């Protein structure tokens, strides 16, 4: 996403010491008054990777005119600070509102962790890709490891209202705020088709983060301080996650990050993917698989 006044970063929680709770009255801010830092490549169309022994793969980028149109819209937006607080897990938690989108910001770097579009359905970021998972897995429950304010859950239940989602979030304060500001409580109610979101507060990688019969699909979106958590760079972690799948189930993972060693926005070649430590771990755990 290219913009001079409001770059955005998409990355989840930071584990820090307890921070004193602070509530803020809504404040009007211009686009230059709130700094939302960019995570490289996050707002462009998600790349697709094929992990094969030969190292084959392909990368796609969004049209330049779409990037320019999105940047022009953001430059005109004004932002309102709805709330600011902290928790045992996140030193800073902010809720920022605009006419088009509501944002959950975490960390002292103000990384955007979740969004709630108001004027449409799509986020124009990697969350939109998660919607494709239910179409390529068996019928069954889907796990969201790293729920945040429920961006992926909103999208999935919009297009698959029968879907049973189970989302893990380590920070109870985020769940509390998401119910108040992001409509998370609405997702916890059954739809007319029987689908809903079940919220679990705790470690998404815990051995207890399972259900009987396994998951049809697992979405992994786990970050700390703008970086993928170190456990996801270990082969054993992915093998343990795979054990939580039912037969023919699949895993979908967000491998980006604000502090990634390789910038996918700057390097669109294959080498940028294979140098990503999480990709390396995935390819070692699941050789020759998508």
UniProtKB/TrEMBL annotation:
GO BP annotations, alphabetical order: polyamine biosynthetic process
Protein name per its UniProtKB record: PABS domain-containing protein
Cell membrane among keywords: no
Signal peptide interval: none
Upper lineage: Eukaryota, Viridiplantae, Streptophyta, Embryophyta, Tracheophyta
Keywords for the protein's UniProt record, in alphabetical order: Polyamine biosynthesis
GO molecular function: thermospermine synthase activity
InterPro entries recorded: SAM-dependent_MTases_sf
Disordered: annotated span: 1-75
Source species of the chain: Oryza nivara
Keyword DNA-binding: no
